[in-house]
Design a protein that fits this description.
about 725 residues, alpha/beta, 8-stranded mixed β-sheet
Length: about 725
């Protein structure tokens, strides 16, 4: 398309969009969103719909699935993640027929069915970074449908903690004559910060509900099994410690969650604090809280946020990238670059591994995609800076002029459904034949993999000098599977003598002691307690019934001013707080009479009206305006002061649905109707607060003693 034609086409689309918006400027009423999309999207367009790893432009996705196929059809969808039913409904209804994507975990089975039925054609399965790059080159969208927390009437956007893909998608379209439509939770007069400039955004659509967001990276410690702990101990003993890995990325799974949970216990006992796992490229995993509080972690750069971690992250600007507005600033594209070039280690999992170590998550009945694993799980040959881990890995691999990145695949010998993880031939080959791919969709190539760890042992593929040795090493740790039974004991013993195969005993580990006792947190409640009450788990991770963080329990000492903090936070009303002041004459609680730290609800911070200020409408507040009284701070075990909970927001025992002010906010939301109603009843009434107050807490930094001290009931494994 020529420059003149492109400009003319964009102008015509915007004229039609203005006709739909009417006198509202850039703001389109939600009940006219389908009409808007039919006005700005033409048949055959390439459309980028923001479906991220976590946040979703779910309202715009529903509206796109509800357009008239007679008016809009044959679209080419470009999006990083297929997470919602509406993401595939556009193909079922004939609105779109081509797809380029990166990850489809929640919709992987349905996607495989549509591909088998020839309902859509997949251009390619990308890594995240690869897809972003192509959006700037040959997959540039004519229309971008993005999502943000807030917007002003000039179209400036505030993305809050979950920036993720938004800047990349918006820039790809805005600077190539495309139209950018943004779904937002709220229209405000002034933004906390500007993440996307208004001249990149053409239309803003207030969603009738807050956008959907999935706690993708949350793993309940209660579901971490002894086998996961054993594998985590082997990972630390065979990789983290000998290579002195300080910069790393963890994938999703209970194996990596177990590693994070035993850093303050097992790794600390081995004297590894300050020597390993200091700098992460990672979403704010809740299971990383104990390691952060123990002083293990110096820095975490984030792809996105994690639902429920907002207050904890805001309280630790020394660890996370927190802006002047008090919220996390994440960026998935930059984090993918950091994960590839700034990390010495990637740890991930897979569904299948073949005899040469090639792995794939694409099976006969699932097209899961790759996400960021191929990017961070590849040895970056453009790297030029050195590190201890990089140089040692290169030396073991026989490299003379360069180092090697450590790429570890942690997988149990059988998947939860009983299917073997080690196979003679990947299902990806059959998928390539049926879907018409030029090459099988291999997630991580075997020559990039340095280690494979199972519950049976670990193998170091860097030390293998032939394909036959690689295959023998993998069979040695494949356990009681058909793949593993083809290995003879003599070959395994020879590989053990050369340090290629390492069983737990070779690493000095006693399998009988590899139990959940090593976990620094054994439940979601423990994570809440370790965070000082700042972590607010989503509703899909309920607290223990009757436990200290069960919202059904009565807490008569909770300040009345905090009872509505969840609703206030949802509306943007937050209160500044002072640090709690304890009684100087209060005696420390004796250890024998102290309850376990994980069973103590976090005390709430002192509230004061002295720091209240107005942001929107009305005059500055005063101390009497909120009728908040001072509340004494408490002391933790052995008399040491605990960190206060986040000010003016959800109490430690109010986590879950209450944190959003809506019972079903965190639950799986019902699918939007394919065609939305028009009229006033289609838009939800929005209560407008006359005054917006802001929280900026001053919190004491947590001390590592909270995980290092063992009480009367502690087991030996808990001592550091």
């Amino acid at each position: 398309m020529s420059e003149t034609t492109q400009r003319t086409d964009r102008t015509a689309r915007l004229v039609r969009a203005r006709a739909v918006c009417g006198t509202n400027g850039k703001v389109c009423p939600p009940d006219r969103a389908i009409e808007l999309l039919e006005a700005v999207i033409a048949s055959g367009d390439r459309v980028a719909l923001e479906g991220d790893n976590q946040k979703q432009a779910d309202f715009l996705a529903a509206c796109l699935a509800g357009v008239n196929p007679a008016r809009v059809h044959d679209l080419h969808m470009v999006q990083s993640v297929l997470a919602l039913p509406d993401h595939l409904a556009v193909f079922e209804r004939g609105i779109a027929n081509r797809l380029d994507f990166a990850f489809a975990g929640p919709q992987s089975r349905r996607l495989a069915e549509l591909v088998a039925a020839k309902a859509l054609r997949i251009g390619a399965i990308h890594t995240y970074l690869e897809l972003y790059a192509r959006m700037l080159v040959d997959l540039t969208p004519q229309v971008a449908l993005i999502v943000a927390d807030e917007a002003d009437r000039d179209g400036n956007l505030y993305t809050g903690p979950n920036t993720e893909d938004t800047p990349t998608i918006a820039e790809a379209a805005a600077f190539r004559g495309g139209v950018v439509v943004a779904q937002v939770n709220e229209i405000v007069d002034r933004l906390p910060r500007v993440d996307i400039p208004g001249d990149w955004v053409d239309v803003v659509v207030p969603g009738p509900k807050p956008y959907a967001i999935d706690p993708l990276f949350t793993r309940d410690p209660a579901k971490v099994r002894d086998e996961n702990v054993l594998m985590a101990m082997m990972a630390i003993s065979a990789v983290y410690e000998p290579y002195q890995v300080t910069r790393l990325n963890h994938g999703i799974g209970y194996a990596t969650a177990a590693i994070e949970l035993i850093l303050p216990t097992f790794a600390a006992r081995r004297g590894l604090k300050g020597r390993v796992a200091r700098n992460f490229v990672l979403n704010p995993h809740p299971t990383l809280i104990p390691a952060i509080e123990a002083g293990f972690v110096d820095n975490v750069y984030c792809f996105g946020s994690e639902l429920g971690m907002e207050r904890y992250v805001a309280s630790r600007p020394d660890v996370f990238p927190v802006g002047a507005d008090g919220n996390l600033r994440s960026n998935r594209a930059l984090a993918q670059v950091a994960g590839q070039y700034a990390c010495d280690l990637f740890v991930g999992g897979t569904l299948q591994i073949d005899p040469q170590g090639n792995s794939s998550t694409a099976t006969k009945d699932r097209i899961t995609g790759f996400g960021g694993a191929p990017n961070m799980g590849a040895d970056p040959r453009g790297r030029r800076h050195d590190s201890v881990a990089w140089l040692r890995a290169g030396e073991e691999a026989g490299e003379r002029l360069r180092g090697r990145k450590l790429v570890v695949q942690m997988v149990q010998t059988r998947q939860p459904n009983g299917a073997p993880s080690f196979v003679e031939r990947l299902d990806a080959f059959d998928l390539a034949a049926s879907a018409g791919f030029a090459l099988p969709p291999v997630m991580i190539h075997g020559d990039d993999v340095s280690h494979v760890i199972t519950e049976r042992g670990a193998c170091n593929l860097l030390r293998c000098r032939s394909p036959q040795e690689r295959e023998a090493a993998l069979r040695s740790v494949a356990g009681d599977t058909e793949f593993g039974r083809r290995q003879d004991a003599g070959t395994t013993d020879g590989l053990r003598r050369r340090g290629i195969v390492m069983l737990p005993s070779d690493l000095g580990l006693d399998v009988a002691t590899a139990t959940r006792d090593w976990l620094a947190a054994k439940s979601i409640d423990d994570l809440v307690a370790a965070s000082g009450g700042l972590y607010a788990p989503p509703a899909k991770f309920p607290p223990l019934e009757g436990g200290p963080h069960d919202p059904r329990r009565a807490h008569p000492k909770r300040p009345a001013g905090l009872a509505r903090s969840s609703e206030a936070a949802r509306r943007g009303i937050v209160v500044r707080a002072r640090r709690s002041v304890g009684r100087p004459d209060r005696a420390p609680i004796a250890a024998d009479h102290a309850r376990a730290r994980c069973r103590r609800p976090a005390r709430l911070s002192t509230l004061s009206g002295e720091c209240v200020s107005a942001r929107r409408g009305g005059a500055a507040g005063c101390g009497d305006a909120l009728s908040c009284r001072r509340h004494r701070g408490g002391r933790g075990r052995f008399g040491r002061r605990r960190r206060s909970a986040a000010p003016g927001s959800v109490a430690a025992d109010e986590h879950g649905a209450g944190r959003h002010g809506e019972p079903d906010r965190d639950a799986q939301r019902d699918r939007w109707p394919s065609r939305l109603r028009t009229g006033a009843e289609a838009a939800r009434c929005r209560s407008q607060a006359s005054v917006r107050l802001m929280v900026q807490p001053r919190l004491p930094r947590a001390s590592p003693h909270r995980l290092a001290v063992a009480g009367r009931r502690a087991r030996e494994a808990d001592r550091l």
